[in-house]
Design a protein that fits this description.
This protein has 303 residues and is α/β, with parallel strands linked by helices. The chain folds into two domains: 169 residues, NAD(P)-binding Rossmann-like Domain (Rossmann fold, 3-Layer(aba) Sandwich), CATH 3.40.50.720; 129 residues, N-(1-d-carboxylethyl)-l-norvaline Dehydrogenase, domain 2 (Orthogonal Bundle). It has eleven helices and 13 strands. Strands 5-2-1-6-7-8 form a six-stranded parallel sheet, sandwiched between helices. It has a four-stranded mixed sheet with strand order 4-3-11-10. It has a three-stranded mixed sheet with strand order 9-12-13. Strand 3 and strand 4 form a beta hairpin. The chain is globular and about 50 Å long. The chain binds pantoate.
Length: 303
């Protein structure tokens, strides 16, 4: 039986784990969230669609447990947990294994590459979304796409993902998609988190739409200066289209804020700002969004 290890126990880890387990793949989740791991051990991964809940059996262990080497790994932890996931994978991944990250933001693949080497690391981009309902329970956000680079080590992983009914495409220009998704994320995630609204509600405010456009355009400008051409021409229009297509979603950053968990702001606006700085391109909107989300997290902790 095919086997995949998923690093993470949050919404995306449960979503992909559930889809794979539903197709008969042996899924092992490795996470740090005690309640999440315990729930999967007891009931399996639960996908909640409308009023229906379906459970799929999966193994689950705490990160750091003694485990047999694994060949195929999907990295789906939050970006601030990547360093820890990388050091666990360094001792777990077989010499001919591969880890594919589908995380949001910039910097994750670099951390994994450093720990695992170029040959055992791949970065992809996904437009699938999911909402965490509770420990071990996730609500799928509809169909999406996983885009991966051409990498010989990914062949068995792609086959299993496709067999599980997930849409997978290969591309020769991953950087364009990584930065394209980043531009959308910096437009939607911080604003939904700060304003505490669903993605689609941003469109009800012309001021919010303008702010989205400014944030996305800054990210696109940094990409352009780095020689990366985005797959879309108008970042503002694209951000609006994604907010519309995902209108009923609670963005991952708002989900984090609501749980009182750290956000991925460092890997999103933080990276746009730092990379802009390093090439002499000011990104004041991303800097401000970065500071405001950090301030919000600090202040929530203090009440
Ligand atoms: O992080 C997220 O929530 C998603 O990437 C997106 C596209 C903003 C949709 O909710």
């Amino acid at each position: 039986m095919e086997e995949i290890t998923i690093i993470g126990s949050g919404a995306m880890a449960l979503y992909f784990g559930g889809r794979l387990a539903a197709a008969g793949v042996k899924v092992q989740l490795l996470g740090t969230w005690e309640a999440g791991i315990e729930a999967v051990r007891r009931k399996g991964i639960c996908l909640q669609e409308e009023d229906e809940m379906t459970a799929f059996p999966a193994r689950a262990a705490r990160e750091g447990s003694e485990l047999a080497p694994v060949r195929l790994a999907l990295v789906l932890v939050k970006s601030w947990q990547t360093k820890r996931a990388a050091s666990q994978l360094a001792s777990l991944l077989a010499p001919d294994g591969i880890a594919l990250t589908l995380q949001n933001g910039l910097g994750n693949a670099e951390i994994l590459r450093k720990a695992l080497g170029e040959e055992r690391t791949a970065q992809g981009v996904t437009t699938y979304g999911a909402t965490l309902v509770g420990p071990g329970v996730v609500r799928p956000g509809g169909e999406g796409l996983i885009t991966v680079p051409h990498h010989p080590g990914l062949v068995p992983l792609i086959r299993i993902l496709k067999k599980s009914g997930l849409n997978v495409r290969e591309t020769a220009d991953l950087a364009s998609l990584v930065w394209g998704k980043l531009a959308i994320n910096v437009a939607i995630n911080p604003l939904t988190a700060l304003l505490e609204v669903k993605n689609g509600q941003l469109l009800d405010s012309p001021a919010a739409v303008e702010a989205m456009g400014l944030a996305a355009s800054e990210a696109a400008a940094v990409a352009g200066k780095l020689g990366i051409q985005l797959a879309f021409e108008d970042p503002t229009r694209e951000a609006r289209a994604v907010a519309e297509a995902t209108s009923s979603n609670v963005s991952s950053m708002l989900q984090d804020i609501r749980r009182g968990a750290p956000t991925e702001i460092e890997a999103l606006c933080g990276e746009v700002h730092r990379r802009g700085d390093s090439i002499g391109l000011p990104t004041p909107i991303n800097q401000l969004l970065y500071l405001l989300v950090k301030a919000k997290t600090d202040l929530i902790k203090d009440v």
